[in-house]
Amino acid sequence: MKKKQATSLNKLLAFASAILAVVAVVMIFLPQIAAVNSDTVYNGIAIAFGKELGSVNLWIAKGTGKIDFSFVNLLAYILVVFGLLVIVLQLVGVGKSKLFTLIAAVALIAGGIIFFLALDTTTMTISTSSIIGGGSTTSKFAELNSDNNTVYKLGYGAITGGVTAICSGVLALGKAVLSK
Is 97 left (phi over 0), alpha (psi -120 to 50) or beta? Predict the structure, then answer.
């Protein structure tokens, strides 16, 4: 009877872990970075793959702004999707070893931690040119905040994605501990 209960608990932990990992993956569509004093938000797609913010073109000057591609932000989603894939494969009966479960747990927890680093791993480049000269400035979103003034903060997508990915990893870790 105890073996049947343990198997049932392992399946429940794997299923709950998979659901939380799906929630974390869906966070790519929700705001990851939000401006404090405006409605400006950037979702996971924009901070992972980059986005053109806009341009100004006057006859004496022009400028463009863009969010740069960030492999680290993309890595957060890759790790969570990998962990989700391993857990789903285990649910259908493929690769049921404890090692695969531990690898999935580590991937999910690492991906969840990276969600919280979005401000430090996302850069914005502003390029200007005029009849006098021009230049380009690249800065992280976290660098735009100061001690006295917060311009950007983590959006609810990054916070929810990080928490759910870490919880999913902890559940997978619990499954690994309970499995034989």
Answer: beta
